[in-house]
């Protein structure tokens, strides 16, 4: 009997995909570059625009807050105009606001333009995941791994590009992203058909209700996963968004550091996560990986004055985050019978709110208490995520595969019969 993932993982090589899938995956890489792009230039922006660290961190908050809130409407939009138009509009919005951010003259303007960037990001991200899962040739498991690989590669390349261009000017990364996003628009227009298969957010022509993602959160499994992801994302974005300040490196040094972090995340997303979920239930992988992230964040707080040790903690954290990202995404796709675009929108909306809270809160904690306080607070948040997974384990039985679900239901029936 299989001990791992649900049967929807499918079979076949992850590399044997339709051209449309590769076009969306390429655009995903560029879109996810936007998450870490500003990381190496946060100190430079703060210096050039005379902003405080908290104001600089709001570049993450405005972006992630709008992304999260807008996620609640993305399935409603894509079900009416189709995934191709939704993806193109999302990328086009990013091109517009990334260019505007590069031309901005104040930190407040950059914060505002990053919020607009987040709107485009929301339209793109949840639609892209549903489109890849629906169009992939080798099942949802391989499709999710491909999506997470794109995420990891984008997160890795984003800081590196940000560091290289940011070494010339803090405006460079914004213009560079706008140019790459324009290439993504062309790729989607050329390679993605208008009639993507229904079943994963394609144009089913059954318009999704605007309230569908909020109603989806009533599903116990999705509510547990979204709540856990909210607190987990606090740890994720403290490691990503706060660490440039205690490290004290220049733009290139920060770019290289977070390139290493992103590569570690990508490698474990693609290679380690599938190995683990093939050998143990997904929930057990979460219960194993979340405590490792807690330890990593706590150690980062202890070694904060040693840049080399802090870099090691950041890269090690990337290894754990890659596993968690892939397994959580797989869980969301398998947890309910909901349309995948709706499940993705609901889950992403909640988890991005955790990312929005973390960066400015970390800067304020560092200012009010001590520089290491954000790491300890992040470790505490990830502990809460672990507690949510442990308490809600009964709601998550389905994500461990049908055999385990049937066995659990049979065991329950026997127990009820014995008690009768």
Automatic annotation (TrEMBL):
Alphabetical list of Pfam families matching this protein: MFS_1 (PF07690)
Record membrane topology: Multi-pass membrane protein
Keyword terms: Membrane, Transmembrane, Transmembrane helix
Membrane spanning stretches: 20-38, 58-79, 86-104, 116-137, 144-168, 174-192, 221-245, 251-273, 285-303, 309-328, 349-369, 375-396
Record localization: Cell membrane
Main location: membrane
Record has Nucleus as a keyword: no
All copies of domain Major facilitator superfamily (MFS) profile, residue ranges: 20-397
Superkingdom in the source lineage: Bacteria
PANTHER family listed in its UniProt record: MULTIDRUG EFFLUX PROTEIN YFMO (PTHR43683:SF1)
Name by which UniProt lists this protein: MFS transporter
């Amino acid at each position: 009997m299989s001990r791992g993932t649900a049967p929807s993982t499918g079979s076949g090589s992850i590399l044997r995909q339709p051209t449309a899938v590769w076009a969306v995956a390429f655009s995903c890489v560029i879109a996810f570059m936007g998450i870490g792009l500003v990381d190496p230039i946060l100190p430079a922006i703060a210096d050039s625009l005379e902003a405080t660290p908290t104001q600089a961190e709001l570049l993450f908050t405005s972006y992630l807050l709008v992304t999260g809130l807008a996620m609640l409407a993305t399935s409603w939009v894509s079900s009416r105009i189709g995934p191709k138009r939704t993806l193109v509009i999302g990328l086009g919005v990013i091109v517009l606001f990334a260019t505007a951010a590069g031309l901005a003259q104040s930190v407040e303007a950059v914060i505002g333009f990053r919020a607009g960037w987040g709107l485009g990001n929301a339209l793109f991200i949840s639609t892209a995941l549903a489109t890849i899962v629906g169009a992939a040739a080798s099942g949802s498991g391989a499709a999710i791994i491909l999506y997470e690989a794109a995420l990891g590669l984008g997160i890795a390349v984003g800081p590196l590009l940000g560091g290289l261009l940011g070494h010339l000017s803090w405006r460079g990364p914004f213009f560079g992203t706008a140019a790459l996003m324009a290439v993504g628009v062309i790729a989607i227009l050329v390679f993605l058909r208008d009639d993507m298969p229904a079943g994963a957010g394609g144009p089913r022509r059954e318009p999704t209700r605007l309230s569908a993602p909020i109603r989806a959160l009533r599903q116990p499994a999705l509510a547990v996963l979204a709540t856990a992801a909210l607190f987990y994302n606090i740890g994720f974005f403290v490691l990503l968004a706060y660490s440039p300040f205690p490290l004290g490196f220049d733009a290139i040094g920060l770019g290289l550091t977070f390139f290493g972090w992103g590569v570690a995340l990508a490698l474990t997303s693609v290679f380690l996560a599938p190995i683990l979920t093939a050998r143990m239930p997904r929930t057990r992988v979460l219960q194993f990986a979340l405590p490792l992230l807690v330890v990593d964040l706590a150690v980062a707080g202890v070694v904060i004055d040693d840049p080399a040790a802090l870099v090691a903690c950041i890269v090690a954290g990337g290894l754990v985050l890659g596993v968690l990202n892939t397994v959580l995404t797989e869980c969301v796709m398998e947890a309910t019978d909901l349309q995948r675009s709706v499940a993705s929108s609901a889950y992403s909306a909640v988890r991005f709110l955790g990312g929005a809270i973390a960066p400015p809160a970390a800067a304020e904690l560092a200012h009010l208490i001590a520089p290491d306080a954000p790491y300890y607070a992040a470790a505490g948040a990830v502990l809460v995520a672990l507690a949510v997974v442990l308490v809600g384990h009964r709601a998550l039985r389905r994500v461990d595969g049908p055999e385990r679900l049937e066995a659990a239901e049979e065991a329950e029936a026997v127990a009820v019969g014995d008690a009768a």
